[in-house]
Amino acid sequence: MENLQKLSDKDLYVICKKWGAAALEARRKFAGLLPEVYRREIEAHEKGGSWLSKRGFTCVYEFAAKLAGMSRDQVDQVLRLEKRFQDKPVLRVALLRGEVSANKLARIVSIATVENQREILGKVEVLSNRALEVFVRDFKNKNGFSEPQKEQMSPHVRTLKLDKDVEKELLEMQTKNIDVNGLLREFLRNRNEKLDKRKQEVAEKQERARDDRAIIGFPAKRYVPVVVRKIVHEEFGDKCSVAGCMRPAENLHHEKDFAKNQCHDPRYFKPLCRGHHELAHAG
What we know:
Elements: H1 2-5, H2 9-46, H3 60-68, H4 72-84, H5 89-96, H6 102-108, H7 117-126, H8 129-143, H9 155-158, H10 164-175, H11 180-216, H12 226-236, E1 251-254, H13 258-261, E2 269-272, H14 274-281
Antiparallel strand pairs: 1-2
Helix pairs in contact: 2-4, 4-6, 6-8, 8-14, 11-12
């Protein structure tokens, strides 16, 4: 206890992080052994005995709870996944060796196939749980696995919310056979042209500033200028820019690598939710 009190905040955190990672890895390894433990218990029962009772346990759930603090649901999850992956050896081996957690594998089990199992495992290994959920949702929607989620069916997506006075004026114009759709198309075209012009102007200023910094050897700052943020917000609003995603935009994503380009070009920015931002950086 005295030695711990002498640790700096940084050293204490490093030690906690080290042993926390070790604990998670050990738990994954233990979970990967449970299907074999269960198989041996079944074989012993068929012969009139019990592999577990010889070791002081009544069932596999007690075994996992006492040795690793696993709940019944966690044990069932591992056993179910092992069965689901019988025809997918890449994912099954990853589970049994404890290379990735059962929680992550459970998120992709509905989209995993014999053909894509290696690609899917690559995603599981590098993505967080949040990003995996986004990846699976997008995969299902793209490949027709399921209907869009409730958040994607928001009324704000399916209908326009107009102020009463605007709605009244448009309806009145329509009754007079005025081409309302044409007016709206012209408005949208003018809006896009205006945005493109502003983005071009800001991009040129950013490029000149980059060149000036290069001459004097002054490094570029990663902070995105306010003028660029305003343009991006005007174009995309405050939601993720990925089609169909209605999550709040939490990150501005450089489509051109800032480390190489050293420029905040508004033409290559996309606001993304946390999950899609992680997917973008994971390729």
